[in-house]
Amino acid sequence: MNRRNHSFTLQQATQDSPTLARLTGLAMESSARLKSIEALIPTALRKAVRAGPIEGTVWCLILDNNAIAAKIRQLLPSLESHLRTKGWEVSAIRLKVQAQRLEP
Hints:
Layout: H1 10-16, H2 18-37, E1 49-55, E2 58-63, H3 66-85, E3 92-97
Parallel strand pairs: 2-3
Antiparallel strand pairs: 1-2
């Protein structure tokens, strides 16, 4: 059997697969949303906030700890409003605290 090794970019692979193309699009949109609201997040907290999944009109932010979540929770109305003015349909932003992994 004669096999050829063809290399291709991630972008080419996602274009050939509707599922991957959809997931890539959602990941890019989530990152764009985070970039859009970044100026509204206090500078000291920005590194502790990451873009999460989009499920319909609900977007998720992944946070490092509960203290960050408490502070971001206070900003949710302004963050949601800002995203709507930028054209994104956001009914809610869900906050998820990522559990810290203990290294052996």
